[in-house]
Specification:
The protein contains 3 helices and 15 strands. With about 270 residues, it is of the alpha+beta class. The strands form 4 sheets. Strands 1, 4, 5, 6, 7 and 8 form a 6-stranded antiparallel β-sheet that branches. It has a 5-stranded antiparallel β-sheet with strand order 14-13-12-9-15. Helix 2 packs across helix 3.
Length: about 270
């Protein structure tokens, strides 16, 4: 009897250790159907898609009643008593539904309780992100029931759909921004071209004005009735008076004075305006 007692006492620590390991294993937050994938997308896009799915009020991939194969009534949560705090790298999101009756695709779930989905998003590179999804059902007796994988895969499908929509919207926004930039560049070119045309036109007008607007060099310059020195003088013009050239010949200019008189002045007696 002493030998058996001694053996029993010697084996007791090992039995307690085995019991502790078994208990820890049964309370694990990871099931064999935990979903872990790597997405070719920046973490900002994945975080947004996951947040949207965590707020969609549906636990995807399970249900309680055959007549209504959608489980509504879920809500997003910042933490979870079912999973406990997340202390590993990455950001965790949670979606919970309380008072769920025996959800489908959870092992031995025949009671009422809380169904929780956890999503963990972690950046791998600027263009790659890891995503982990787990689902557990905690019944009224505080027994955890592992998912069979349907919820994880369905939640992942919902996240993929949101991610595609986010990326498609980003592509549309980028294309719209490029089109706006191209249009602005086109308008700027047109404005510059129009500005150049206006400047060229102004230069031509200035050149033309310098050619047709002259002034009399000396006082007493005769305004002739015809382009000949022997022609009669209409009037004598004072110095520096401005005249408008209306007819050009090799030696004589047909001009109009400021007071409306017209006649001819020899070109040597006129000069450009300063």
């Amino acid at each position: 009897m002493l030998v058996y007692r001694f053996l029993g006492l010697a084996l007791l620590p090992w039995l307690l250790l085995v019991s502790s390991i078994s208990s820890a294993s049964s309370d694990s937050d990871h099931s064999e159907h935990s979903l872990s994938v790597q997405l070719e997308a920046p973490d900002s896009d994945v975080l947004k898609a996951v947040q949207e799915v965590s707020q969609d009020q549906i636990i995807h991939g399970t249900y309680s009643y055959e007549k209504e194969r959608v489980l509504y009534g879920a809500h997003s949560a910042e933490s979870s008593s079912v999973f406990g705090p997340w202390r590993e790298p990455g950001k965790a999101f949670y979606k919970e539904a309380e008072r769920v009756l025996a959800p489908k695709f959870f092992k031995e779930s025949g009671d009422i309780g809380t169904l929780t989905v956890r999503y963990v998003v972690q950046s791998v590179s600027p263009t790659s992100t890891s995503l982990q999804i787990d689902a557990l059902f905690l019944d009224a007796r505080h027994v955890k029931h592992e998912s069979k994988g349907n919820v994880e895969s369905s939640e992942y499908a919902a996240i993929q759909e949101h991610l595609r929509a986010i990326q498609a919207q980003q592509k549309e926004d980028q294309q719209a921004a490029q089109e706006i930039a191209a249009k602005r560049a086109e308008l700027e070119n047109e404005r510059e071209s129009a500005g150049s045309s206006v400047q060229e036109l102004q230069k031509k007008l200035d050149d033309l004005r310098r050619r047709v607007e002259l002034r009399v060099k000396e006082s007493g310059t005769p305004l002739k009735s015809a382009p000949f020195r022997s022609a009669s003088t209409i009037q004598s013009l004072p110095a520096d008076v401005e005249v408008l050239v209306v007819i050009l010949t090799p030696y004589w200019y047909g001009i109009e004075t400021e007071d409306g008189h017209r006649g001819w002045v020899h070109r040597s007696q006129l000069e450009p305006l300063p």
